[in-house]
Design brief:
With 245 residues, the chain is mainly alpha-helical. This is Lipoprotein.
Length: 245
């Protein structure tokens, strides 16, 4: 590994470990520094579970705890090559969430052979796409329920039977769901963008067929993201049509 790359790793390692400790402390003290918390009205299906954790935070936040634990384990281990151990811990926890340059440096250090490296990248994209699909399925359930609530509120308004305080609480919950889904979508789009940057950077290294396969998988992920974006936009339009007065 080159000196400059190792220097970059050391700086990132220090940041990740510090972030890990900070985030753990915030979680234990109930700090709101991490954004949304329980009790904000967001549907629990959007805030709990593995798919919620994967898309709720971006960049360093997304992997700080996992990488920090792995890196500390490497530092305390008897591994004969702590550098390799640290690389494995960082890339396993973070992937492309840390940015295209970080991801590409890591993969090139790990796989010198371009064909093997692109095959691994394909695997990473496919795994993240499956996570997008799982998140979309959860989101669709929530969106369907929110639409049903909106339809009932509109019906009650038309029949002059609306319970205003109850309807306001329901609308507030729907607004929280939309805000959370938009945040998830922003992080999904970031993943797509970073993977595209990696593919562009590898274009001169791999064969056209290898790069094309990577791009096809990235496009498949993007299609899932675009589909969810349309569903969220439609929900927002339906919600915006309600005026309780």
């Amino acid at each position: 590994m080159s000196r400059s790359l190792w220097t970059r790793f050391k700086l990132q390692i220090a940041f990740v470990v510090a972030s890990s400790l900070l985030m753990t402390g915030c979680a234990n003290t109930g700090s709101s520094m991490l954004g949304e918390g329980e009790g904000d009205g967001t549907d629990p299906r959007l805030t709990q579970g593995n798919d919620a954790e994967f898309f709720s935070k971006s960049g360093y936040q997304a992997c700080a705890v996992g990488a920090g634990v792995g890196i500390l384990a490497c530092a305390l281990s008897n591994s004969s090559n702590k550098t390799v151990c640290v690389i494995a811990a960082g890339i396993t926890a973070c992937g492309v969430a840390m940015g295209a340059n970080y991801y590409l440096d890591q993969r090139r250090a790990e796989y010198a052979d371009t064909t093997t490296r692109l095959a691994k990248m394909n695997s990473d994209v496919e795994q993240d796409t499956q996570k997008v699909i799982a998140r979309t399925e959860t989101a669709q359930q929530v969106i369907n329920d929110d639409r049903a609530q909106i339809a009932q509120i509109k019906k009650d308004i038309a029949n002059k039977k609306v319970d205003k305080s109850r309807a306001q609480a329901q609308i507030a919950g729907i607004d929280s769901d939309i805000a959370r889904l938009r945040k998830d979508l922003a992080n999904m789009r970031t993943k797509v963008t970073e993977y595209r940057k990696v593919a562009d950077a590898e274009r001169s290294q791999g064969s056209s067929a290898e790069i094309r396969q990577v791009e096809m998988n990235i496009q498949r992920m993007n299609q899932k993201v675009v589909s969810l974006q349309k569903e969220v936009d439609a929900l927002y339009s339906q919600r915006s049509a309600i005026t309780l007065g």
